[in-house]
Amino acid sequence: MSIVALADADASCGRKAYRLGVALRAGLRVPDGFVVTGPAVDPRRIAGQLDRLGSGAVAVRSSGLAEDASTVSFAGQLETVLGARSLDDVLGAVRRCAASPGTERARSYRARLDLGDDGPAAAPVLVQALVEADHAGVLFTRDPRTGGDAVVINASWGLGESVVAGAVTPDEVIVTGPTDVVRLTVGAKQTRLDLRRHGLVRSPVADADRARSCVRPDEVPRLVALGRHAEDLFGPALDIEWAVADDRIWLVQARPITALGGAAPTDDPATTTPVVTGVPSSPGRARGPARLVRSVEDFHRVRPGDILVCRTTDPAWTPLFGLAAAVVTETGGILSHAAIVAREFGIPAVVGVDRAMTALTDGEPVTVDGTIGTVTVGHHR
After folding, report:
1. Alpha-carbon distance 261 to 177, whole Å?
2. Would you state the pLDDT for residue 188?
C-alpha cells in the first residue's frame, strides 16, 4: 500500500505510516513509500514498489501497532534500517523490522511501562525513499522541560539518526511565536552520518562546522510552520523528525509527545559544586553509585539503583533503564530517544555531559539532578 493511500487506511498500517499518509495528502513534503503488512513478505510486490520509488536508497522502519501512541512512543525500541538499496537488502530489512516487537529491548520496554510482555508477532513495516540530508533533527512543538508552547529544535549535520540516537550533542534552538529565537545553543556535533555509494558513513565534522549552527536563520520559521501545520492535522504537543536536502524541509515522522509537563519536585538543591554539567533532559533527582558502562560486556555490572554513566546509549541498552536510578551520557540532546525513554520511565537524565566517563569514577556515590543538569559527587540531601 503506498503512503498516499494511507490517509484513508485503517490502523493496520500502524500510526507512524498512517500519519505520514495524512500529512502527504495535506500537502506536506513527505518522502514517498509503501507499507508491508502481515507476516508474509511478497518479493514481487516489494520489487514493484521499489521500481516505482526509483533507484535511490530507502529507509526501512517499523510502524508498530502500539508505537507512536499518546502515552508510549517506543522511541528507538523497534528497528530502523537506513540506506538499503538492493531488493535482497530491503527484504532483509523488512523482515528484521517486522520481527522487532520480539526483541529483548522491546519486551523490556513493554514490561517497564506495564504494557504486558507479549507484543504482536510482527509489526507493519514502512519503506520510504531516504532523504540524503545536509542537516536534520527533531522538533518538539512543546518544551518537554516545562510543558510550555515554545518550540524546541535539535539539529546536527547529515542524517537525523545522529540526533535521535544521541550519537552527537546537537544544536538546540528554542523558539516562541513563529520567529522569536529565545536561545540558540551550538552543540558539539562531533560526527555526521551520510549516505555514500557503498553505504552509510560516519565521519568527523570539521571544526568550523562544529562551531556554527547547522540550522540557518531563515529555516527556523519554516520549521516552526511545519510543526504548527502538523499540529493542525494531529493535535497539539508533537514530536517531529525532519530533514533538509537542497533547501527543502521534509517531514520524516510525527507522533505525540508522551512525557510532557513541569519539572518534577526535588529537595533543596545540593550546595556542592557539580563535577560535571550537561543538558537537563528528564526531571528529578537520584542518588547512587556511578556505574560506568562502555559496552554490552559491562551490562552485567549494572545493579538496581545504580547511576548509568556512558558515552551514548544504543536502543539495545533500554533494559538498563529499568534498573538505573538515573542516566548520564556524554553525547545527546533533550529530544534524543534516550531522553524520551528516560522521561517515560520517570528517571532523571542529564545528557551531553562532556568528559562524564573520565570525570566520574566507577562506584563512587553521585547525585544526578535531571531538572537542572548537574552531577555532583556524594549522596547530597
Report:
1. 19
2. 95
